Amino acid sequence: MTKGTASHGKKSGKAGLVSRCRRCGKHSYRVRKRICSSCGFGRSRRLRSYAWQKK
Length: 55
What we know:
With 55 residues, the protein is largely without helices or strands. The protein has a domain at 20-55: N-terminal domain of TfIIb. The chain has one helix spanning 3-8, and strands at residues 18-19, 29-30, 35-36. β2 and β3 form a beta hairpin. It is elongated and about 55 Å long. The mean pLDDT is 86.
């Protein structure tokens, strides 16, 4: 029963999951889904905006 921590201890390379977006520059671009959660880069050409964001 020594197989628990030995495999999970090597999981430290999580730097490539979220990176800086090319369009908005924020640190919210998901590499695996290839979509920026802030501006919507990779999903559409328009900037991501919703009606509930504006006051």
